[in-house]
Write a structure and sequence with these properties.
Structural class: alpha/beta
Number of helices: 4
Number of domains: 1
Strand content: 25-35%
Distance between the termini: 15 Å
Radius of gyration: 13 Å
Largest sheet: 5 strands, mixed
Strand order of the largest sheet: 1-2-3-4-5
Length: about 100
């Protein structure tokens, strides 16, 4: 949330835990924070409940603490598709700056 505010976004945390990033009073992007490491099933589940048009401005946010190289490789492979992208907290700044 601090990173988003530093990029000029107003931040709203929804009751379900999603984070909406606003600019000019309109939702500009969304973050879906999770506990633990994402896998294909979790990404698919989150993607299924998100409108397709919003997926390019939505990120699944996780902490990569303790992630193995093979798990990171798996997530990089999953992120190649057109769907929901998983981004570590450490990489969130670059995503926010690109919006």
């Amino acid at each position: 949330m601090d990173l988003a505010q530093g990029e000029g976004f107003d931040v709203r945390v929804q009751p379900a835990g999603n984070i909406e990033l606003e600019k000019g009073g309109k939702v500009f992007a969304r973050g879906i924070p999770i506990v633990g490491l994402p896998d294909a099933v979790l990404i698919h589940d989150c993607e299924c409940v998100s409108p397709k048009a919003e997926l390019t401005r939505t990120r699944l946010i996780y902490s990569g603490l303790g992630m193995s190289k093979s798990w990171r490789s798996h997530l990089d492979w999953l992120n190649i598709g057109d769907g929901l992208v998983a981004t570590s907290v450490d990489d969130a700044q670059a995503w926010l700056a690109s919006l």
